[in-house]
Amino acid sequence: MAEITDYSPSSHPSRESIQPGQVTALLDHGASFDGRLSFEGTVRIGGNFQGEIFTNDTLVINPGARVEAQIEADVVIISGAVKGNIFARSRVVMHPPAVFKGTVTTPSLRIDEGVVFEGASYMPKT
Prior knowledge:
Blueprint: E1 3-4, E2 16-17, E3 23-27, E4 32-39, E5 42-45, E6 48-55, E7 58-61, E8 66-78, E9 81-94, E10 99-105, E11 109-111, E12 116-122
Parallel strand pairs: 3-5, 4-6, 5-7, 6-8, 7-8, 8-9, 9-10, 9-11, 10-12
Antiparallel strand pairs: 1-2
């Protein structure tokens, strides 16, 4: 399994790593975006986002981020606050201090100790 490393000051060590050069775009702390985000590659959100997110790749939501969205992606990694519905083709991983409210549909779901999860999960056969 790859390792995701959060490079923010309040990062939580994890066992999966995305190197800085692998990030296609970054909505950093202090930035806000309303609308539809569609991308290829890996995108990190560290600020505020409201709307829809679509990708065939990876979405990383950093600690401190606030996202209210309908999300469709291959992989979603959450360490921030997310409200909405997620459809992930491969997996969803939640690390503390993540707070999730909504519905997750994915074949693989990992919720680490310390995460707040309010909602439902559906894990269809692959």
